[in-house]
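User: Please predict the structure of the protein below. I'd like the answer in structure-token form so I can feed it into my own downstream comparison script.

Assistant: Understood. Taking the following sequence of 79 residues as input:
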Amino acid sequence: MASSPSTRLAEFAATARFRDLPDAVVEDTVRAITDWLGSAVAGSLEPAARMARDVVAALGISDDAAVLPSGRASAAGAA
């Protein structure tokens, strides 16, 4: 029986090594992460994001996750 696409992807991810990745893949990944981070930080200044941070702050502190950009510790489900 052939394995599912998700199983094959998981096996690839579990055995992949950084040195085996093509340069273009690394460059595209760095670009995508940098783009996401810039968008997250810029979006964190919007009124809706500030309201969300206030709600999260009211839920208490946990070391599960961090809330950007403050770095405040929060429960993973709230972050």
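That's the full token string. The CA atoms of residues 25 and 31 lie 10 Å apart.
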